Amino acid sequence: VETITRLLDMGCDSFSFADAMLGVMAQRLCKRICKECSEEYRPTQEEYDELAHGYGMDRWDKLGVKFDAGFKLRRGKGCDNCNHTGFRGRLALHELLIGTDRLKRLIQNHAKTEEMLNAALEEGMTTLVQDGIQKVLQGLTTFKQIKAVAIK
Predict the structure, then answer these.
(1) pTM here?
(2) Are strands 73-76 and 38-41 parallel, antiparallel or unpaired?
(3) pLDDT tens string 30-65
(4) Domain annotation for the chain: domains and CATH numbers
C-alpha cells in the first residue's frame, strides 16, 4: 500500500494511476531453514503470542492455530550442509494488492495509507508479515527471519 503513496508523491496523477492499476506486488526474501538439519521444537507461549499478534488477532483466530500439545515449529540445528547456520537458501514472501474498485476510489480521493490498507485487508489481502507467518507455520523459516525483512 505504501508503494501507491510513494508513486503519488512522485507526481503520478491519482486518477490516471488508479484507472491503470491492476495490482501491486511486494516481495521480500528471507532465509530458509536448512532441510538437512531442520528439527521440530515446542515453542513457548510467548513465541505463540508473538506470532498471533504479528498475524493480527482477528485473522489469527480464523487460521485455527491453537497453543496445544500439537503446536510445533521448526528451526535449523546447524550442519555441514548449511555451514552450521541452520539456514540454506532463500524463501520469497509476497503481498499482492489488487486494484479493486473500492481501492481505486480511495486512491482517486487521496485517502491515507491506513485507509487503503484497511480496505485491502477487509477485501482479503495477505500482508508480507502474514505470508511470512504462514511460512513459519509450514516450517520453512523462522519468525526472527520474518521480522528481519518484513517488519519495520
Answers:
(1) 0.90
(2) antiparallel
(3) 999 999 999 999 999 999 999 999 999 889 988 889
(4) 2-150 (3.40.50.300)
